[in-house]
Amino acid sequence: MPELAIETHGLTKRFRSQLAVDGLDLAVPRGAVFGFLGPNGSGKTTTIRMLLGLVAATAGDARLLGAEMPRHVDTVLPRVGALVEGPAFSPYLSGTANLRRFDAADRHAPRGSRATRVADALERVGLSHAAEKKVHAYSLGMKQRLGLANALLMRRELLVLDEPTNGLDPQGTREVRSLIRSLADDGTTVFVSSHLLAEVDQVCSHVGVMSAGRLVAQGTLDEFRGGGETRVLVRTPDADRAREVLARLGLELGHGLDDGAAAGGIRSMTDAAGDALVSAALDAPGSSGSSGDAAPAPEAIVAALVAAGVRVRGFELERASLEQRFVELTGEGFDVVQ
Ligand SMILES: Nc1ncnc2c1ncn2[C@@H]1O[C@H](COP(=O)(O)OP(=O)(O)OP(=O)(O)O)[C@@H](O)[C@H]1O
Predict the structure, then answer these.
(1) CB 3.0–4.6 Å: which of 106, 183, 244, 278 could bond 188 by disulfide?
(2) CA pair distance 230, 9, nearest whole angstrom
(3) Mean pLDDT of all residues in the chain?
(4) 284 in ligand 1 pocket by Cβ < 6 Å?
(5) Residue 335, ligand 1, Cβ within 6 A
(6) How far is the CA of 263 from the centre of ligand 1 (A)?
(7) Are 64 and 76 in contact (CB under 8 A)?
């Protein structure tokens, strides 16, 4: 069995003068829940459409479950469940009747167990109560759930979900998250595009970040976070002395937390008790700060602060949040919905 569920090399899509996807080298390991992130228009949907053989690539190649696409589309797609821009449900049929039609169109789906399969899929996405309702009376969220149910009709090795929580309320979003988790627990690889960092943070094992058609980062969630800077936060009434010590240790002052305040000429924040929160970047990637020296250990920082007479009332190491990393990589804000 190939180790990668999805693998692309130089995958490119050009629409007339627009380069929508530019030389993508994706590597999605089997068993991963891969969060495919990116701002609007960064090329996520186009990539997914190429992966599924819905649109032809301009250049490059893609393999799904070890087989070249779109050449092996007939043998590969039955092993892949997909939710892409809502399938064309018939509005005047019920949810159940729509799913039966889709199931009947799948020649790999045994007819005898169709009714059970459809009922199970509706149950998994929390739509049993509306199973017999006509789809034109469904809300956007319900249609989205029906699309998901359609992707879940058969057990699949790979699920490709384009923005599965679009149109869902917070409760629906939580349900989709736990559904993804349970699918992953069963060994299904899940490739999910999303705007929602919180979603990715909570369910994904791997992340890929798109920006303007290019894949600017990919790896495990830990690697992704680890690539960002770690900040040291010191709570102390002796802010000036603390800053001197941190600077002496080669740390770069005034990162992150202080940035906003620094614009107003303040380099730290003071609380009601008179303690200031001084922040500095430890091992900022690409920082010119400490001329390539290894960052000092946290205990060495605390010892140096104490030795210099700084009253350390709080000390914390804070890793970059996913959102900070995303902004660092794409230069764009993120649509953060918790
Ligand atoms: N059929 C098409 N014809 C022309 N341009 C297109 C077509 N499909 C997509 N594009 C362009 O390609 C770029 C990437 O679009 P795509 O839909 O893949 O981005 P996305 O990351 O999925 O965005 P969103 O999060 O808004 O869905 C956009 O600039 C879009 O306008």
Answers:
(1) 183
(2) 32
(3) 84
(4) no
(5) no
(6) 36
(7) yes
Whole-number Å distance between alpha carbons of 243 and 248 = 8
What CATH number corresponds to the domain at position 156? 3.40.50.300
The total domain count for the chain is 2
Whether 13 is in the pocket of ligand 1, judged by its Cβ within 6 Å, is no
- Reduce the DSSP state of residue 309 to 3 states and report it: coil
Q: How confident is the model at residue 282 (pLDDT cuts 50, 70, 90)?
A: confident
CA-to-CA distance for 242 and 105, rounded, in angstroms? 69
Residue 338 lies in a domain: no
What local confidence, expressed as pLDDT, does residue 318 receive? 78
Q: Say whether both 150 and 294 belong to one domain.
A: no
What is the pLDDT, as a whole number, of residue 111?
Answer: 87
Instruction: Please identify, among 166, 191, 223, the residue that sits at the C-terminal boundary of a domain.
Output: 223
Q: Is residue 78 part of a domain?
A: yes
Q: Is 334 part of a structural domain of the chain?
A: no
305 inside domain: yes
Q: Residue 177, SS3?
A: helix
Whole-angstrom Cα Rg for the chain: 25
Which position has the higher pLDDT, 281 or 271?
281
Say how many Å lie between the CA of residue 248 and the centre of ligand 1: 49
User: Which of 189, 223, 257 lies at the terminal end of a domain, its last residue?
Assistant: 223
- Asked if 312 and 185 sit in the same domain, the reply is no
Å from CA of 20 to ligand 1 middle = 6
Asked if 205 and 240 sit in the same domain, the reply is no
Nearest CA to ligand 1 atom 29: 41
pLDDT in tens, 130-173: 999 999 999 888 888 899 899 899 889 999 999 888 878 888 88
Regarding the beta carbon of 149 and ligand 1, being less than 6 Å apart is answered no
284-308 average pLDDT score: 73
Residue 282, domain extent: 230-319
Query: Do 45 and 97 lie in a common domain?
Result: yes
| Sequence-separated (6 or more) residues with CB below 8 Å from residue 236 | 242, 275, 276, 278, 305, 310, 311, 312, 313, 314
Say yes or no: CB of residue 85 within 6 Å of ligand 1: no
Considering the entire predicted model, what is its pTM? 0.76
